[in-house]
Structure prediction request, 706 residues.
Amino acid sequence: MTPAMAGVSRPIRVVVAKAGLDGHDRGAKVVARALRDAGMEVIYTGVHQTPEQVVETAVQEDADAIGLSLLSGAHNYLFPRIAELMKEKGMDDVLLFGGGIIPEEDLPALRTHGVERIFPPGASLEEIVAYVREAVGRKRGVTTHGKER
Amino acid sequence: MTVEKTRTKTQKERWLDQTYGPATARHAERKERFSTISDEVIEPLYTAEDLAGFDPERDLGFPGEFPYTRGVQPSMYRGRLWTMRQFAGFGSAEDTNRRFHYLLEHGVTGLSTAFDMPTLMGRDCDDPLSRGEVGREGVAVSSLDDMEVLFDRIPLDEVTTSMTINGPASIIWAMYLAAAERRGIPAAKLGGTIQNDILKEYIAQREWIVPVRPAMDMVVDTFRFGSREVPRWNTISISGYHIREAGSTALQELAFTLIDGLEYVKWGVAAGLDPSDFAPRLSFFFDVHNDFFEEIAKFRAARRIWAREIERRYHPSSERALLLRTHAQTAGVSLTAQQPYNNVVRVTLQALAAVLGGTNSLHTNSLDETYALPTEDAVTLALRTQQVIAHESGVADTIDPLAGSYYLESLTDRMERGFQRYLETIEGMGGMVAAVERGYPQREIVEAAFHFQQQVDEGEKTIVGINKYATAEEARIPTLAIDPDVERRQVERIQRTRAKRDAGRWRESIDRLRAAAKSKGELMPAFLECARAYATVGEQVGVLKEVHGEYHDPGYF
Prediction:
């Protein structure tokens, strides 16, 4: 991934993704709108993407983060698969987070796969925007060796 | 009449000036601006003045008479209660068959089938894209083998069955007809509904297969076949539910759904069908959300608008073509994961609104549905909610009890005026198919969903347990777990089906389907033959995609 140039803060680029056959896209679109209104560059994949397509989009778009929305019950397959593909491509500096209907008991396992945070139904847009800003900043900070961005 | 209205108006103004104004100047109201959940402004008081131009004889009529504002049946719930139809489906065909028998034993009066995502998207359970999704959000049905198990020991000539499926609706319907045929039940005796509403898939739900125009031809094909061969079947359930769940306002739900309906009728007529034959088999399906009066108004306005539009356009010889018969489901999107027991109260209010709106059939959601498909106990409580409303509250004992309320009638009129504005815009684009192709309703819905979420975030709209009265400790409720082994067993079954079927007959049926799709011939007879030959959903959908191409999400946001 291209490290951010010192002294220049390029806008945060986020891929908002829907994977699998799940068509529930209200949350994904509302979050995409909120991130865009907050000054980020948002690429929305549309529904029915494979994990490979999601990760490929993130590579092509040089994204800082992938936000995956899932309400289909297939999270225990799709999140780990995307995390695995990201690892294969060396995308350690890219944030993976999510939202949707994920039972509490499934969260610890997803965290060990590198899904840092999952927003449940009822999360506020403000909270999500603040998190993405903070977490991407943190990732950029680490990968640019603490350089001032 | 005129004199009285003028006097009332001045009386309302007098009240506003002399009583209400000074009082609210001293003590401000709870909010600066009151509005419905759809953000329509609500005035402090409604009087006869707000019903200027309202003519009860013309605008309400009587139950069972034009324009059906007060209900499509002459005696409404005094004659027969609404159908209590609980949507169910999970895991394997065996699991769902057991749930069907359980529901019938507990008093449901109609079945309603939820299919899993692979089936809804026309994919077999062993398709790579189905991984992790088999049996999770509904039941997996890949071939006639599954369909026979699903309806095992269910009296198909006595119970009506609704099947919520759209892109592959014809294929699944053909499997149901073939299952009945094998049990010796004639098609003419079967009653039920296929959702088959493809327009709202592009607008909101996203379970499509092929592009919109060939998909519309498939819908018209079911109208033709149904009126000829399965006359008791509702060949479509024109659905606002998913439009609303995707974030639309009540008015958008109403308008887009009815304009979808008008588009189907237009396509049917263009294909040479008589609306008097097929329009009586069109049924509707609406959401019922939290805003009590707005929802009641929506149902009443829907019946009146539909009757007026169909009469104005087609003057059908059959009066039944004018009737908007509808199913309703409480709003899944209104349920909260936090403080889940509150959901029981929401569902009760929503169900009451649907009944006061005169729905013909109702599904009540279960309290646990933000987590998973419902448990048996949760489903039973949801059904009991309907039974308490029906038998204990007394609301079903007189017809359309809220008619004449200044507030309700002005909301009903406002809905009708709002519909007319959307109708003009969409007809200006060339109708709903053209509007969908340019993403118009899709964008309107995203706009409304975003606006609502902002209002919640800013505290203008309250969700109890979320942005007010939130608690740190949450009640834990039991949830339904889907057996992870379902996918493996389902894959084994489809492999057995493919191995044991008559390969020659299967090949012929697939070729016949391809020929019919290419020549724009009748499709239902070809789907029926495919079902009998145990062709799978994925194989048949594969043929359709090969002929018509696939549809991809343009991703409007």
Notes: Chain B has two domains: 2-51, 56-457. The domain at 56-457 of chain B is CATH 3.20.20.240 (TIM Barrel). Chain B has a mean pLDDT of 95.
